[in-house]
Amino acid sequence: GAGVSQSPSNKVTEKGKDVELRCDPISGHTALYWYRQSLGQGLEFLIYFQGNSAPDKSGLPSDRFSAERTGGSVSTLTIQRTQQEDSAVYLCASAISGLNYEQYFGPGTRLTVT
Amino acid sequence: ILNVEQSPQSLHVQEGDSTNFTCSFPSSNFYALHWYRWETAKSPEALFVMTLNGDEKKKGRISATLNTKEGYSYLYIKGSQPEDSATYLCAFLSGSARQLTFGSGTQLTVLP
């Protein structure tokens, strides 16, 4: 299908290791978003890309989190020196343009830090 | 910090009942209000994006209204079916914001 895809679907990692999560948005969508949902919590905004630029990085929880987007397409979210509190489902969404357009979500990556 | 509240937190209805729930958001500097439906083990699915005061949108048995002056939106489901069971999320976008602020959702369970 032509939806948003994310990989891996599940990731178990040891505390202190780095992880990289990938998002492939819908072709032609210029806006891309990362969210996370921790256990029992709502959707938490992390970062938003318009093209390859990230106008708002304020949602990144700490400097261990970074994200990039290349070619206006694929995005990677990197978490360095993972901690147990990073365990969550990380969702990616894309939209045809900015924030007033509906977002199409990927299936998510479930990250477990042991 | 923008306050987006949804009520009720959870709701159980019988199949065939109609139901509605509320999303409250700041009434100043409104730009857009999104509604999403999130079924367990699936991804959130967009229902509506509403931008104009008085807007009413409909998709099948689901409809939504918007009052930006008083800062609320209602989501209605007519003749609920078990497949409507999901968490319904609203998300607010202010004119100055560069991110959506999501509510915590209303978890709907439709009993057969």
What attributes characterize this protein structure?
heterodimer, A: 114 residues, mainly beta, seven-stranded mixed β-sheet, four-stranded antiparallel β-sheet, 11 strands, globular, B: 112 residues, six-stranded mixed β-sheet, five-stranded antiparallel β-sheet
Give a quick rundown of the structure.
The complex is a heterodimer of chains A (114) and B (112). Chain A has 114 residues and is mainly beta. Helix content of chain A is 0%, strand content 49%.
Rg measurement of chain B, Å: 13 Å
Total count of strands of chain A: 11
> How large a portion of the residues of chain B is in β-strands, by DSSP E?
over 45%
The end-to-end span of chain A amounts to 33 Å
Strand/helix succession of chain B: EEEEEEEEEEE
Counting DSSP E segments of at least 2 residues, the number of strands of chain B comes to 11
SS element count, helices of chain A: 0
Question: How many individual helices of chain B?
Answer: 0
Class of secondary structure makeup of chain B:
mainly beta
Note poorly predicted spans of chain A.
none
Task: Explain what this protein looks like in three dimensions.
The complex is a heterodimer of chains A (114) and B (112). In chain A, the strands form 2 sheets. In chain A, strands 2, 4, 5, 6, 9, 10 and 11 form a 7-stranded mixed sheet that branches. Chain A is globular, with a radius of gyration of 13 Å. Chain A has strands spanning 5-7, 10-13, 19-24, 31-37, 44-50, 53-56, 65-69, 75-79, 88-95, 104-105, 109-113. In chain A, a hairpin with a 2-residue loop joins strand 5 (44-50) and strand 6 (53-56). Chain A contains no helices and 11 strands. Chain B has 112 residues and is mostly beta strands. Chain B is 0% helix and 55% strand. The mean pLDDT of chain B is 93. The chains are: A mainly beta (114), B mainly beta (112). At the A-B interface, strand 10 of A face strand 4, strand 5, strand 9 and strand 10 of B.
